[in-house]
Design goal:
The protein is mostly helical and 53 residues long. It has helices at residues 8-19, 25-35, 37-48. The N and C termini lie far apart (32 Å).
């Protein structure tokens, strides 16, 4: 299944909707998964890893 490129702004918008109580936890998890949160976290983790790890 092809997904659109990861858009951190859309991920944040979905998270903020959940914080405001506008969407359910299940909906926000689906949005984050389909929106590419894993890729964002993998990228951040790789940048934060000490050199040589």
């Amino acid at each position: 299944m092809d997904r659109p490129p990861t858009d951190p702004a859309k991920l944040l918008a979905s998270w903020m909707e959940w914080e405001k109580g506008e969407i359910t936890p299940g909906r926000v998890m689906a949005d984050l998964k389909m929106g590419g949160l894993r890729e964002v976290l993998e990228h951040l983790a790789a940048e934060a890893a000490p050199a040589g790890s």
